[in-house]
Each structure stands twice: as structure tokens, then as C-alpha cells.
Amino acid sequence: MHKYKTTRICTLAVAFLIFFMPEFAYPNSLSDRLRLSFDNIPVNSNSNMGLVGVHYDFKKINSKVPDFYLGIGGYGAMTGNYGGFFTGGITAGYHKLIDIGLLPGANWAMDAGFFAGGGGGAGAFPGGGLMFRSHFILEKQFSFTTFHMGIAHTDFYNSSNPNSKDIHLTFGLSIPAYWQHDSKTAPETIKSRIAPAILYCHPIGSSTVRGSDTPQESDIIMLGFQYQSFISEHIYTSFEFYGAGSGGVDGYAKVLAGPGFTIPVIGDVVSLDSKLMIGMSGGGGVDTGGGLIIQPMLGFDINLSDNWSLKPMAGCTYAPDGNFTASTLELSLNWTGRQQTKEAKVYKKSRTNYAIAHKNYFPTSSAKTKSGGEYNSRIDQLGIIISKPVNEYLNLSGSAFGAWKGGVGAYAEGLFGIEFNYHGPSIAYNIGVAGGGGMDVGEGFIHQLSLGYGWRLSRNTKLAFEIGKMEPIKGGSFEALTTQITFTYFN
């Protein structure tokens, strides 16, 4: 296949939308946004990898520089037989409305940005895992949606792959999140929630181990974290991360996004809930081909209190480009985060906090790789954290980390945490899943206890330092002392 065949087809489709789609007024150019992109990059002379980028950008960082933004997110393989490649990190950029007389209509914008993150997998770019990506794109804004095209440069800085650098076309879309900030008329319906979740996958059909004809027979249990944002009373968007914790497939992970719909069926107690999740997955020998995964789910949302609900769901996981299909059961505990105000007897959406974190592992002397080798003296990881306050002192969080230095570039982890913070000093406990990069973490379940201290830099920002210890829950020789620096933005 020609190097740019996939890119050209999709670029023509985006160009058609940009030039011929009816024009509407863009609601709020300074709104935070969800930004999606697609890059088709060469891995070797015979194959390419299609990377899908998912980012959440904050555009109200500084009133003196309103066009500057910071973002969190990452990239994952979706085409090209490299399912299991993931990176996560941060973006900084400049996004500004412009007037281009030669192009039709109004509401054009330019966007220049830079991403730095860590991760890897699927044997695509072996090494430390550090990824840089810069972009310059032209964007056309419509009501609720924008489409963009431009140029991107990717650099897998410490990879041994000779194709570690490339300049290519990129395209995608973004969705403004203005309804989460400006809506004051419907506080009970415009809300967000986070949820720890457990996923049970039972392989069916012709599912096989990647690279062989061996049937994929073991049931897979995955732990995950979900962040859902309601855009109306019944419709929401969901973003989810899962990692395997049993089934002999440590390192298998998936990142999903999609729409959901919920409607009450028994008063305010039970609602029928459905969602269609699409995303990237792979690793751990699970044959997801290029990485594309489709997961339709149907179930019930059962209210336990004003703030908590339990959601059992059932569905199917399907990899169109691989040999993996599984019947899927999901159970999540949802924290809605509504808090009653003192001024009026109404509920308002509680604050959602976003953070970037740098974590160091210092392996103990007894820690060995899966092959019995020694670890580097320090392993560096970059991560993103989403959290919501339960009250003044307690926070619930979900986080994802990827290694960028230390010789374990394909290693990644996803954690659900609880933190108690009393005016600076804090104690936190995180539990989740990890794998990849030859790290011996047993079945994949890990946990971490840490102590820390935080300094408020401004009304909306905070810097914190933590020390602690991480170890597997079942099996695995890897143990490490940890340090972590976290920068939090209070949204």
C-alpha cells in the first residue's frame, strides 16, 4: 500500500467537509475542547502505523494570553498491525482565530502545538519510549465541531528504529466543551462523573494469540477508569482506559471513547443505559491487528444515593482488523460529583481537576525483568491524572502513565486512587494494572502507597511532591521506591 493512501483518502473527506459543509456560528473560541487527530507514519519500508490522538485542551490558562492552551492526552495505534502501541503526555500550543480572504467563509483558525510523552509497545519504536510531536494546522470552525488539516512532525527520540522521525499530513476534529462551563440553567443535567470499573472478557469464535494459531482461551479481567460528561439530560460522552489484571495477558490495554444514552425506567432509581465505545487496544499477545476495537454495551444505571450509582452492563468486544472477539461484562461505580450550594437549593457540577505528573521508579535490588535481567537504576514515567473532590479533604482520581526513559519503553500503567489532603500534607493509595516493556509485575495488578506535600501556586494551580513504594499484588518480582512531582489545574 502506498505510504499516504490512507491519509489521502481521509484528507479528501475532511477537505470536502471544510469547503462544502453549511456554516454556522462557532459558540465560544475560548472554550476548553476535546481534540482528535490522525497521523499515518512509517514504521519500516513495508508498513505504516495509523496513530489516533485524543487530547483535552485547556484554553483559559492566562487571561493575558487567551490564545495559549495546555492539554493532556496521548496517541494509540488503530491501523497497521501495531495494536498495543500507546503513548501519553502533555501538549502546549497556540490557537487563534484568523481572517483568510482566499478561503471561503469565516471562522478559520490556526493552531501550532507541541506534544511530549512516553509509552510504546507492539515493537514499533523500541527504546526508552520518549515521543515528541509538533503540528501546524489550519482549522475551520462550525457549530459544535471543527475540522482541521495540516502538517505534523513525529520524533521517537530514543528509539533504535531508523524511521523514528517523520513529517506527514495530519487531520482531525475538535469539539468545544463550552457547555460544561457556561451552562447555568440546567445544573442537574449538565454534569460529569468518574468511575472505577472492572471488565470481564470471555474470548469467543476464532480468537487467537497474536502471531500464532493458538486459540485465545483464557478469560481476561481488566481494571479501568471512566470519565463521562453529560451534554444533555440523556446523552453523554465517555472516555475509558483499561488494563489487564489476569488471564496471562499482562500488558494488554485499551483506550476507548464514544457516546452514551440513558433514560429512566423505574423512577429516579433505575435507568436504561447504552453506549458505543470505539478506540485503540492491544498488547499482551491479544490479536487486535492494527488496534481498532469496537465495544457496544447495554445495561442499567442504579442510583445508590445523590452522588453514587452502580452500573452493570453487558456487550461484546470486537477487533475488526484482528482475531479477537469476546463477550464482555462491565461493572462500574460512578461518582457523579454533584454538590449542593449554600446560596440555593440546586445542584451544580462539581469541579474536575486535571494534572500532569512525572514519576520515578527506583527498583529494589531483588527486582528482575521477565527474562531475569537487571533494571536500570531509575525508570522515568510521564502521566496524566483526572480527579474529582468528594469533599474539602478527599479526592478520587484516575491516572495513566507511560515510561519514557529507563529501557522499558512499552511499559504503561493505569491506576485508580484515593487521596486525603489536609492543607498541604497528603496520603494517597493507588491500585490498578500495569504491564509491558519486560517488567515483571506478575498478573498485572499493582498498588502504591505514598506521602506528599502540596503548594498552591495560584487560585487554579498546585504543585505537589510525593514519595512512596510500588509493588505487584500477585506474583512478579518488581518492587520500587517512588518519587512523583504533580502539577494540577483546578478547572
How would you characterize this protein structure?
- 4% of the residues lie in helices and 59% in strands.
- The protein is built from two helices and 26 strands.
- An eight-stranded antiparallel beta barrel has the order 1-2-3-4-5-6-7-8. An eight-stranded antiparallel barrel has the order 9-10-11-12-13-14-15-16.
- The termini are far apart.
- The relative contact order is 0.13.
Protein traits:
mainly beta; Porin; 8-stranded antiparallel beta barrel; 26 strands; globular
Task: Give the overall pLDDT as a whole number.
Answer: 84
Q: How much of the residues is beta strand, in percent?
A: over 45%
Going by CATH, the architecture of the largest domain would be Beta Barrel
Q: Unreliable segments (pLDDT under 50, ≥5 consecutive)?
A: 16-27, 179-189, 339-349
**Series of H and E elements:** HEEEEEEEEHEEEEEEEEEEEEEEEEEE
Total domain units: 3
Distance between the termini: 45 Å
What Rg, in angstroms, do the CA atoms define?
22 Å
Number of strands: 26
The quaternary structure here is single chain
Order of neighbouring strands in the sheet with most strands: 1-2-3-4-5-6-7-8
Helical content (DSSP H or I, runs of 4+): under 10%
